[in-house]
Amino acid sequence: MKSFSESWAYYSPYYPAAPYEGSTRKSCAVSQVNILQRHGARYPTSRATRAITTALAKLQSVAKYNDTKLDFLNNYIYGLGKNDLVQYGADQSSSLGAETFRRYKHLVAGANNLPFIRASGSKRVILSAQSWAKGFSAAGEALYPAKVNLIIPETHGSNNTLDNGMCPTAVNTETQVKRFVDITFEDIAARLNSGAPGANLTAQDAYAIMHLCPFDTVAKEAVSPFCKIFSEEDFETYEYAGDLGKFYNTGYGSPLGAVQGVGYVNELIGRLTNSPAHHSLQTNSTLLSSPDTFPLNRTIYADFSHDNLIIAVLSAMGLFNQTNGPLDTTRIVKDRTWIASKMVPFSGHMTVEGLSCSTHPTQYVRVFVNDARQPLHFCGADSDGMCKLEEFVKSQEYARNDGFGDFAACAYEG
What is the mean pLDDT of each run of 10 residues along the chain (414 residues)? Predict the structure, then answer.
């Protein structure tokens, strides 16, 4: 049964989208692991905070509520922080680090084969990476002391394959999400206004108030009373608004979405093939040229980033492609394959496994997103999701060809 927190789109806390499947071939074993993980649960961003506090002020300005579910607002004081990781987010990241050790401990052999960990240079991303490393180390009873090896700056002009800040001309998703919210949240706002006479909430205000359900919950680690003023149908609408946001930002709905993930995909190919990563406009040649900052001799790699970058990577690779066309911005598409909570919840991660088989020299690849094995039809994967490494590399033609010129439209000045 679906948990209601799974309807919070990219504000959902991490949950496994499916049970992890070990290798179904007895002759094959995982020989390399590449993890790309989002930071853990956080406070609202500064921009979201402004929308939330504006809407909340309207809702708390009324003299008397007609809906008893709103009575808690008489004593509610907003006190959430901005941008930073919350403890729940750090704990989830730590748990995932421990899980990685338990699942792949056969790949760790002493201090020379510890995970190589990178983090994009945002505070919440760095803290998530550090928490993951602590969890990994604790699960190994401190015999394998993992640490963050490299932090890549997010400053302007920095070539950072773990951040989507290198495409200034890419369009944002305000138009698509605003259109959908203005249409579908009108009834939700009317219901709230009926329970809070004089609040005069708009559809956008209602959407902002709904953000308090996930943010208040993860900050206080208890179901927020804001969750209880909305219905299951409301959360379906809320979830779709979040799905639209990611689809039209760095997903398939943006002409410059997938190209922002090309740099990371080329690094991934380099690791899987144990060869220097393809240099492109997005990669940092200085970092790639040094074994200290881009080693090829590790069995576990863990990279920490943001949801928008991970969405770009998934799109560049050809995962979660919408077979029935772009997402509609006026109504919910029920049969969509693009569901943000299954892709980039807080602490969500893509895991790319390299596998070696004792019966033949061919190397294989499997891909999991939040433990759900991906079909990889584009590289001829069989029923257990394994495709030949050489076929996987061939399938990543978009990345290997630098997006076929798409990055030039980003007008990035590194």
Answer: 83 96 83 97 97 98 96 96 98 98 89 88 98 96 91 88 88 83 97 98 98 97 97 97 96 94 96 86 83 93 98 97 89 95 98 92 95 96 92 96 88 68
Taking residue 310's Cβ as centre, other Cβ atoms within 10 Å add up to 27
Report d(CA 213, CA 234) in Å as an integer. 12
Neighbours of 153 (CB within 10 A): 13
> What DSSP line would sit under 244-285, residue for residue?
HHHHTTTSTTSTTTGGGGHHHHHHHHHHHHTSPPPP-SSS-H
Q: What backbone torsions phi and psi does residue 233 show, to the nearest 5 degrees?
A: -65, -40
Q: Which architecture characterizes domain 9-42+89-170+258-410 according to CATH? A: 3-Layer(aba) Sandwich (3.40)
The total of other beta-carbon atoms located within 10 Å of residue 141's CB is: 8
39 is an active site residue:
yes
Catalytic option among 39, 211, 278, 349: 39
User: The pTM is what?
Assistant: 0.96
Backbone phi and psi for residue 8, each to the nearest 5 degrees, phi listed first: -95, 15
CA distance 404 to 264: 16
**SS3 call for 71:** helix
Torsion of CA 51, 237, 330, 321, to 10 degrees: 110
Structural domain boundaries in the chain = 9-42+89-170+258-410, 44-83+172-247
Q: Is residue 369 classed as helix, strand or coil in its secondary structure?
A: strand
Tokens describing residue 2 = 């679906």
Amino acid (one-letter) located at 184: T
Sign of CA dihedral 87, 92, 97, 102: positive
Contact 398, 404 (CB under 8 A): yes
